Amino acid sequence: MQRSVELAPELAIMLVDTEDDIEPLTRRLTNLVLQQGLGASHPTHLGIEAHPSYPSVYFGFNRVFVTNTRRGITQALQFSLQYYHAHAKGYPLVDTTRAQFA
Predict the structure, then answer these.
(1) How is residue 59 annotated by DSSP?
(2) What is the C-alpha separation between 16 and 70, in angstroms, rounded?
(3) Pairing verdict, β 64-68 and 54-60
(4) Other CB atoms within 10 A of residue 100 CB
(5) Is 52 exposed, middle or buried (0-12, 13-18, 19+ CB in 10 A)?
(6) What is the tens place of the pLDDT at every residue in 49-79?
(7) Closest Cα partner for 94 from 48, 26, 36, 38?
(8) Residue 100 and residue 17: Cα distance in Å, rounded?
């Protein structure tokens, strides 16, 4: 999360090498973001949330994707990029000037 603030990439993908459900991880990441008290410029950017059309892909804070390898690395990256181009590209980022995750 801190890297997404400091390096300010167009998008970031956290690929978790597991076939297990990563929803508990995304809840912890959402809590981390909420603790920062940052204002979201778009509702999808505030927490890390799932989208029903993109299995095992979670998206949120500062254009960060979190996904696992359940369907394979290629599929995870493909779903992330499809989601980005369909739902996130062009929306402003979260104001991260006050973020301190470390």
Answers:
(1) E
(2) 10
(3) antiparallel
(4) 9
(5) exposed
(6) 888 888 889 988 778 899 999 989 999 999 9
(7) 38
(8) 26
Measured CA to CA in angstroms, residue 13 lies from 4, 26, 37 at distances of 10, 13, 23
Distance CA 97, CA 54 (A): 30
Task: Classify residue 87 as exposed, middle or buried by CB count within 10 Å of its CB (0-12, 13-18, 19+).
Answer: middle
pTM recorded for the entire structure: 0.76
80 in Cβ contact with 68 (< 8 Å): no
Question: Which are the contacts of 15, defined by CB distance < 8 A and separation ≥ 6?
Answer: 67, 68, 69, 73, 76, 77
